[in-house]
Structures are given as structure tokens and as C-alpha cells.
Amino acid sequence: MGVKVLWDQQSPPGIQLPVCRNIAMILDIPVDLAESPILIDGYDRGRNQHDARTILDRLQNTFIRRYEIRDPVLLVVPRDLYVNGCDFVFGLARPSGGAAVVSTARFENAYYGRMESDDDLIDRTAKEGAHEIGHLLGLDHCESVECVMFRPSTLAELDRKKKMLCPACRQALLQRQGRE
Ligand SMILES: [Zn+2]
Ligand SMILES: [Zn+2]
After folding, report:
1. Is the pTM of this model over 0.85?
2. How far is the CA of 68 from the centre of ligand 1 (A)?
3. Count of CB atoms within 10 A of residue 30's CB?
4. CA angle, 143 as apex, 142 and 149 as ends, to 5°?
5. Which of 68, 108, 128, 132 is catalytic?
């Protein structure tokens, strides 16, 4: 069992491989990278954001079902995302459909008026990508602030997380996968 990462053509170029390597390391699972064929819709003009649920609907209906994908799929998009009731989300997972999406929009230092850094962008995309895939693999949110499964509300909380699962989440993942 592995996971599939689909990279939107407009997502930041040149960082796909390090992001996937980091996700593979965090979750200790093989990661397969491909260019995304998914059209990103769900744009809300008033919010200037995309509805993460609409993107997941399309990912499920046009890719996962059509190609009968059984592994978890993470779509990486450059567009800022929301779900009803939240100002924004870094990403969203739908475990029942095996589908997740993560946005790089708020992982860029430029979004906060800071100097660009590929290392920061790679770290954040890998942590939140691994977080959403963690949900697809059956993990819940974690109280440990340094664990990848902690739910960050701010960039500072995201940056405080380490690129790893805490021992409890690692154990839970192993049990889920029947590796223990
Ligand atoms: Zn979460
Ligand atoms: Zn944890």
C-alpha cells in the first residue's frame, strides 16, 4: 500500500520530489507522484477562494472512481481553500472517499510578506500533506503540538510542528496498517 500525490500544474514547481520524499519519511509509506489531471473548480468570487469540498468531489468522481484507485490520493493545489464555517483551510481530507487536498497558498512566505524560502514551502507542504494523508489512513487529530497530526490554526502553529508523528500516532498508524 502506498499513497498517490497529484501535483497541479500551477502548484509551485521544483519542490514536488522533496515534498514527496518528506511525506514518505513522515508516514513511512511509499509515495507515487504524478501530474494532476484534475480541473480545480468551486471558485467563490465573493471570497476569492475555492471550496475544498467541491475540489474533493471532482477528484473522487473524475479520477479515483474512473481509474478505480484504491490507495489514498492527495491533490496539491495553489489556490486558497475554504470550507463553510471556516475563513480558510490549509487542507481537507475525506477518509470515506480516500481523497484529500492541500493548498500551498498560505505556505508561501510571500503570503505573509516575508522572504521566499523553498525550504519553508517544502516543510509546510510536506507536513500538511502528510497530515491529510494521515486522516485518510485513519488517524485523528492529536493534542501533541509537535506532531504532524496536530491541527494548526496559524502559520506559527504549523511551523512549530515537526516532520514526524508522535509515538502514539505512529503506533496507531502501524496498528491500522496491520504492521504491528
Ligand atoms: Zn486534520
Ligand atoms: Zn500525534
Report:
1. yes
2. 25
3. 12
4. 30
5. 132
